[in-house]
Prior knowledge:
The protein is elongated. It has ten helices and no strands. It has two domains: 3-67; 77-210, no CATH class. It is mostly helical. The chain crosses the membrane at residues 6-27. This is Secreted protein. It comes from Streptomyces mauvecolor.
Amino acid sequence: MSSGVVIILTAVAVIVVVAVVLGMFVVRRGGHGLRRRFGPEYERTVAEHNGDVKAAEKDLDERVRRYGNLKVVPPTAEARGRYSAEWARIQEEFVDSPTRAVADAEALLGRLAQERGFPDGSSEEQLAALSVHHPRHLDSYRRIRCVAEGVDGRRASTEELRETLVQAHEFFVVLAGERRGQKPGRPAARSGRHASQGGMRHHDIARGSQS
């Protein structure tokens, strides 16, 4: 074999190795980016695909492609006041009718999401779109949907309903445009009229569980 042929074969081998290494780097980088972007939704999606990371990441990539550039309309101050007033009514309703209050809260969240530009609340598309824009708050929305619709076929206790509503309020506050990225379980302090209308306090809901 001539030296020229050896040089050519060596060059080809080097190119192949470099291509493989770069491909592996891109895949790892893409997976890390999806994990960082989706947070707990990444792990949930992997579990839904029975541990198939490649299939899960394909699913998440598709969501980003479809909904990443979705035009989300910020609510006006008037709209925020209206939403807060309705949530306050639901909070008061919980005292006498916890089940109905949770159902009303779920309906309000679905309507609010739709008014902001997300797909209709009756479809799984809404969850897919919300997972791209609000992945760290989506579990609370899924939970209140399941409870309101009685997916597991059992009647939730008053304490479960209370916890569901408290957690859903975190998503409501973010979705209503009052703040972004607030960690669950740490409602932001608010003052004045809006605090009395929209603030979800654990002891307020707890009173409903004692009545």
